[in-house]
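Two proteins follow. First one:
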Amino acid sequence: MNTINKSEFTVLERFLRYVTIDTQSDVASETHPTTQKQFDLAHILVSELKAIGASDITLDDYCYVMATLPSNVSHDVPTICFCSHMDTSPDSSGTGVKPIVHKNYDGKPITLPDDNSQVITTERYPSLVKQIGNSLITASGTTLLGADNKSGVAEIMAAAEYLINHPEIKHGPIRILFTPDEEVGRGVDKLDMEKLGADFGYTVDGEELGSMEAETFSADGMKVIVHGVSIHPGYAKGKLVNGIKILSEILTALPKETLSPETTEGMEGFVHPYLVEGNVEKATATFIIRDFDTSKLAVHEQLVKDVANEVIKKYPMARLTFEITEQYRNMKEILDHHPQVAANAAEAIKRTGLDPIIGSIRGGTDGSRLSFMVFPVLTSLLANMLSTLSMNGSL
């Protein structure tokens, strides 16, 4: 385990160190955390929290890191929590990350050195125009950078250290929470809310400086399972029913111009098959179903069922089964009952001289599920108020 003695790390120094630690989660794992290597970063964070003087520092068997910044005011103030997740997506390698700092970005194309086919341009990413003159951080081309969400972890740590070293800034009790497995939808599965002990909180897992989001998708997982009939292919005429081919027909029959991630934006929902596996006898397509209106999830799921049932009519010896799992719900349904959470965030952002950028997340965070655990949460980049560096999780 690494021991950290130095204090006053910059947010950049922290971030560059964190991203080199492989914390990739695993959607196929049944353990919690889904990968033991997430503890590698957790132990470092515990060491750093001790070094900066935080209190009540814990790391449990499920890889949740918690700590407290005690109140320095005499009157009662609600306890707030700042939360970020330590894991990175299972969709791209987190091993051997080599962060590159591009100082004083001039807007010209950036070719990543380990894969020259990876070129970052303002044409493809128009938001980068706003970053001209700033420093950008990228990976080298063969891995994720891990800014989602090690940027948030670094920002919370830098903000915590700043508050501890500047007691003239008055605040109530602050709880810090770092979670595993957010990328695979299990970030708060084993979280002890009573132990966390916060009244409301902010997940530091957003976009550009000053952004705040109080609305997410609602989400379900869905599996379409085709049960075929497997016969030795040499003697299969009139008997074999190929589940793979039937499943491919179902996927081909889905809407192509609407209801997919590649054809929707804004407040539009979608149906997204992202994993196909199986064989002749059993072939499965795994979907994510998303919409801001929770009631529309059932509509989208019925559309998939209707398409599949229509295709299967041609194959009387085959059959279908469906599995639907609730993943998370739009946190707006809870936050609407606690308007002070968003109002306080907006006011705090204004006091830094920024105009709040209020939007909706075409995704979900730990905050989505935490909000339905009687813990109103807003997703934002509030910790950037106490740092000088904004790091976009999309790079």
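Second one, unrelated to the first:
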Amino acid sequence: MVEYPMTFDEFATKFQTEKDSRSYLYGLSFSKGFACPKCGNGKAWTVSDVLYECSRCGRQTSVTAGTIFQDTRSR
């Protein structure tokens, strides 16, 4: 079961940096490790802070896809 921050203080403690946020989103997206949504492969290369590329089929997948951060740009 995923524990979501319920108060502003919990949120501020849990997400002190952008890296904390990205790690949390990665855990939500790939709770059992990376799995390509297209081919199911378990290995990927890091393209950017939020983007991964499947080593088998080349599909790029972002941990922000399907979240409120989907169309945002990282610094």
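SUMMARY FIELD: The longest strand covers residues 51-54. The radius of gyration is 13 Å.
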